[in-house]
Amino acid sequence: MKTVRNLAFTFATVTLFAACGNTQKPAEESHEGHHHEAEKTEEPKTAMGSVSLKDDKLNAVYPHYLKLSTALIAADVAEAKVAAQAVELGVKALENGAALQALTAKISNAADIEVQRTAFAALSADFIERVKASGVNAGEIYVEYCPMAMNDKGASWLSNEKDIKNPYYGESMLTCGEVKETIK
User: Fold this and answer.
1) Which of 15, 63, 82, 111 lies 20 to 30 Å from 137, alpha-carbon distance?
2) 26-37 as b/e: b if 16+ CB within 10 A
3) CA–CA dist 65, 82 (Å, integer)
4) 54-82, pLDDT tens digit by residue?
5) Is this prediction's pTM over 0.85?
């Protein structure tokens, strides 16, 4: 029993010193020409990145819209519900936000990814008009379009990246679509 206790004490001590002894900052860490600082600058692109809208209220909601789009790309019904609830809270502060609230509530209450995606198409149409009206302080926002979405009626969405990641089809047709417009 004493040996087990001594072994556990030794393991805990070594672990503590190993954890405390790392004085290198992760951002400065590099190996074989790979710099972690570069990774940190790329990371925000999935959220707001360097994009800033002129309308502060819309600017506060837009990152949640992007999270909703990401959840739909991944076909993650539960995450889409969470993101839609965050959008719903934010749109309450927007002028004429009642329609957006109804759409986000529909996404939040849906148990089916296709119902969520259909409501997202209408939500995106409204968001696109609001972002265009607001304008962008910094960065670029892309209006992307898939002609096959919504039973070949087509649907658009906003993205901070030129690369197409289709929220209406997810992995089954991830790159279906094109950039229709760049909002600067």
Assistant:
1) 82
2) eeeeeeeeeeee
3) 11
4) 999 999 999 999 999 999 999 999 999 99
5) no
